Amino acid sequence: MRSRRSMCAANMSPHWTFRCCTYTSAVPAWQWTMSCTGSRTAAARFLGYDVTVQHNDRKLTRGRRNVNGQVALRVPRSVIQAKCSRYLQRGQPARRTPIINRDDYTIVATYGAEYRGIVQYYLLAGDVQRLHRLRWVMLSSLLRTLASKHHSTPTRMARKHQAKIITPSGPRVCFEATLHREGRKPLVARFGGIPLQRQKTAVIDDRQPDGLHHPRKELITRLLKRRCELCEQTGHMNVHHVRTLAELGPPGPTQPAWAAVMARRKRKALVVCDTCHDHIHAGQPTTLTA
């Protein structure tokens, strides 16, 4: 009696082919699902790909229908929708507020790394060109983020950062941001420029992306100095707050020294020692060190 593996090699039906793959696959069965075994219109979800069996009687190669029965990899429609949803708001591309205060290089590098990771993972799919939708959504979100940062328009941002690079598939349009460094080679962040064409020999290099660097808040840095901003004494510190700068009063001889310091710095918080803090709340004059 012939084994399942030999029956699969003998070009049996797609039903036997999938059963053979299920039987011999080293990946646990819980990692992939199949909607209908053996159907031409069904697709098995495997490692983020849709695995289908092709059928086309009109596609002839050297007089033979070689496409029929061939297994193909597809980009799932649900994956494209899920990836695009991160950059959409009410169905339209929107800016990303959490990174709007970063420099242009970091913003473009963040978008470029996310887009490059998704595209390179699906380069084995026969319909990788369907990711054009994702590219448009991410590009629109990128330009709107830069435009909101610089109080400009997406068109002007596109004109500023647009560039052209040479790829093995020909010239491609991309968007770049340069970080100049004194005495060193400038860093270039790039979004796009990847041909959305299937690569049969593509190698998936799943690297861990670098996380966003969140700089420390200015108030925390001032607190860690453990130095009073009025008398410059060291030790235990407190933070005196006001709700608005208007509460500091008009400048002049009647304005307290601590209020003048806050008004000059345009800060609603002041790091002071215990003694100065008590004097502020008691309405007593504080010692101001020049």
How does this structure look, described?
It contains nine helices and eleven strands. It has 290 residues and is α+β, with helices and mostly antiparallel strands. Helix 3 packs parallel to helix 5 and helix 5 packs across helix 6.
Characteristic key phrases:
single chain; 290 residues; alpha+beta; 3 domains; 9 helices; 33% helix
List the helices and strands and how they pair.
Elements: H1 4-9, H2 14-24, E1 32-34, E2 44-46, E3 49-53, E4 71-74, H3 77-85, E5 88-89, E6 92-93, H4 104-121, H5 132-150, H6 154-161, E7 162-167, E8 170-181, E9 184-192, H7 218-224, E10 237-241, H8 257-265, E11 269-273, H9 274-282
Antiparallel strand pairs: 1-2, 2-3, 3-4, 5-6, 7-8, 8-9, 10-11
Helix pairs in contact: 3-5, 4-5, 5-6
What does this entry show, briefly?
The chain is an alpha+beta fold.
Topology order in helix (H) and strand (E) letters: HHEEEEHEEHHHEEEHEHEH
Portion in beta strands = 15-25%
DSSP, total strands: 11
Given helix and strand content, the structural type is alpha+beta
The largest pleated sheet is described as:
4 strands, antiparallel
How far apart are the first and last residues' alpha carbons, in Å? 97 Å
Radius of gyration: 31 Å
Give the count of structural domains.
3
| Overall pLDDT metric | 81
Number of helices: 9
Percent helix: 25-40%
Q: What order do the strands of the largest sheet run in, or round the barrel if closed?
A: 1-2-3-4
Low-confidence stretches: 1-37
